[in-house]
Amino acid sequence: MGEAGKDQTDLLGWKVFKQNPSNKKFLVDLPPLSQEEQQLVLALGEMFKESSKTHEYSQRAEAAEKIRELLRAHCEQNSIMMEVDQFEYLAKIAVMHNYGYAFIEPLLEQDFEEIAVIGLNQPVYVFDRKKGWLETNCYFTKQDTVVNVINKMARPMGRRITLQTPRLNTVLPDGSRLHASIPPISSVEVTIRKFSVKPITVPDLISTKTFSSEALAFLWLAMQADASVLISGNTASGKTSTLNALFSFVPLQERVLITEETPEINIPHEHRVKMIASQELGISMSELVQDSLRMRPDRVIIGEVRTREEVGALMETIISGQARGSYATIHAQSGAETLRRIRSLGCLPVDLGSIDLIVVQRRMQRYDPKTRKLREIRRCTEISEVIPNEQGHNGNGNMADENALPLVRKIYSYDSKSDGLVRVLEGSLIERKICSSTGMEAEELRGEIAKRKKFLEGMSAGKEAASFEETIAKMQKFSYAND
Length: 483
Description:
Layout: E1 14-16, E2 25-26, H1 35-52, H2 60-77, H3 84-98, H4 104-108, E3 114-117, E4 125-128, E5 132-136, E6 138-140, H5 143-154, E7 167-171, E8 177-181, E9 189-193, H6 202-207, H7 213-224, E10 229-233, H8 239-246, E11 256-260, E12 272-276, H9 285-292, E13 299-305, H10 308-320, E14 325-331, H11 335-344, H12 349-352, E15 357-368, E16 373-387, E17 407-415, E18 420-423, H13 429-438, H14 442-460, H15 468-479
Parallel strand pairs: 2-5, 10-14, 10-15, 11-12, 11-13, 13-14
Antiparallel strand pairs: 1-6, 3-4, 3-9, 4-5, 7-8, 8-9, 15-16, 16-17, 17-18
């Protein structure tokens, strides 16, 4: 492949090679172009650029029709006889190269989670949910071509990558995340994390074994009792998808304030207000949080917490009490690590006790000794409550002092043998909070969890998957029969 990348007939800056099918590869079906065909694609690009000076082609179909028209005219003017098949694939590739995203386009059309460009003359990789990382038969050969593709993708967001700003992080119009960097930061790197067209629902979390139905029934009641919840986990573990799904437990008429740096939260509530922080415009997360607390929110979501400022914003929403519940995602591998990470970002230990629950969700490799295969899974590994220091404990279980971290106590924990969550604690503080909020006794609470567990199992076991809207409607009707 390295030798192929040095092919002197490479004019477009990208190539797709014919290769033999393999379980570890994904092959894009595009014909290799001769030098003359590549020259024609570039010539069509120049003609299309001239036409674009007097007419804006905002729709792909319109641009494709214009390029086909230019190709026909070129063939007629130069007395070129072309087979129908050749005309069609040249027109298709000319549109991909001059208007679209080159071979990235057919990859985006597939149901992959991620697309990764790892350098020039290196195969592009895609991540398949069932097969893992797959090598493709596509790669870029010129930096200018990669930069052009990145900028075309980021243009609707008003963003660009240049030698002066060699790093780009943005969310595409369809919700997918685009990260890219060029020299001097890296060679050439592009990662596209695709946004699921079909939102993840609570029944999906059960059917994929990410959560147990009982644990979700418990979280349902906790959120109705206005518990503040952090969702922790490693990269690509599905933290945001889970947070989105859990909001189907929240009454649809509630006012939800969302502050993010990268827009990812997608909840079904119509009465929601989204505010996006921007370094370029000098708009900080803390300023947005201060604004949000003046807007009478019922719930506040602080996107992904990564920096000292974002931690400060999160804790401000929890401690102020102006919203009934506050929520965020953060990178950490356990409940205890979550508190240590937040503490390292400037939060006072005494304030950490204001957090009610930490839900840990991880992306893991699971080995099957029978098939001798590895598969990637996403599992909730822990649902823990935070015991404030005034309860008389610290992280070591000793009497508290003002600098000690609160105790993290597991309520549900992942069992690798059963590949699921098991209940490890009864009589938790959060259960008392739920009982206080609802007027239920402990025995009644256990019965209500059982009812909701049965309801969720029925939804996830349906022969036909309900639509996102139908799922939300059923859950809301179960929770709020009089609304």
